[in-house]
Amino acid sequence: MSSPDHRVHADQHPPPTLNPGVRRREVLGWAMYDFANSGYTTVVITAVFSAYFVGGVAQGASWATLAWTIALSVSYALVMLTMPVLGAWCDRQGTKKRLLALTTLGCVLSTLALGWVGPGDVALGMLLIIISNTFYTMGESLIAAFLPELATGPGMGRVSGWGWALGYVGGMLCLGLCLAYVLQAQAKGEPAASFVPITMVMTALFYGAASLFTFAWLRDRARPAAEGASPLASTRLSQWQRLRLSLRSLQRYPELARLLACIVSYQAGVAVAITLAAIYAEQVMGFQPQETMALIFALNIAATAGAFSLGHAQDRWGHQRTLAVTLVGWVITCAIVAMAHTKPVFWGAAVLAGLCLGSSQSAGRAMAGLLIPPAQTAEFFGLWSVAVRAASIAGPLLYGLITWVTAGNQRLAIGATGGLFVLGLWWLWPLDMAKGRARVTSEAPAPADR
What we know:
By secondary structure, this protein is mostly helical. It has one domain (24-218, 250-441): Growth Hormone, Chain: A. The protein has helices at residues 24-47, 49-57, 64-93, 97-113, 122-144, 147-150, 156-187, 192-217, 239-248, 254-283, 289-317, 319-339, 343-371, 377-405, 410-428, 433-441. Helix 1 packs across helix 10 (254-283). The longest helix is centred in the middle third of the chain and has 32 residues, at 156-187.
């Protein structure tokens, strides 16, 4: 593994964290989007609606988990097909906020509509998950593309960590509000079909309200690209042709290509943790809904600590080394979960998973920000989104296939998930961050401050 890409010596002043002209309020506005959208993933995808869909909407049918993973996979496939092209459009126009506003509105409205989904409404539930998760994922890619405009190379990990940490705080706050309501509703004897729809409304309103800080404080700093600068702009190309063109351009950035392969590998395992944690807790470990929500709450606390502390550490230790440590932690976590037969042991594994979750996602985004060419941030962060979403399809589907082939053995499936993190380490080890960073900084245009 190459040496850390950034070092701060005792006899030197620390390098600046933010680019010239970037105010801290603007960085806070950027991080507030992570705060806003984390409620969606925490409540809808991880803790509440996923388990409700399997046990309530699909009424515990044998195909329910597969239907859930198919809905998510369709949304990720849509993002993979469209995001690099939409990113190229943003780079050409010199604006990302307009598209970010549209995707945010789309996710908020479709999450509100999830409140209409009741027992038996499988098709409606799947359709609304496809729509809401597609818009959420597009927004996640667009907000990530702002990172290189805000942070310097030496500060990339720190700023990325701030965003992830604040995101987990937002996820916890939204989940906490929902948990308080759920406990109150359960005390009155209300069924899940009564209180889960209300949590969807709460989550949508939280997302929409918190994102207003982003649109008030975050600025578009990119310059419009020259007319015809990107072949992706051609209207004669199909979506597949445009995606292939964007992928072909990775040949000029081999370090970024290796990083994206690493991200596909380990994010497939992370996707299993995010999308199936509640299902595993309730079906294998015997958790009740309120216990599951408390578990996810604890996981988010640990993830906040991991994203913030290791976000700072990676700028000193090296992003690559920090990511390697977290991937080893994930392997250990999968082994513990596969062997856990008591709730306290499972709780301990969840805390370790949270620490690894926050730091691995923060480190991956920061490393991408360092290796992406500055003139194509939205397009190449679109490819980053393709990598993450390809993993989000592969990981849960692999998990589902293993459980299907083994007649529901989820312990074996989670144990096999550890192999995805080992594969990520294999891709990560020879990556030369210093060489990749030098390659893109030589192409950097003059900074824009408008």
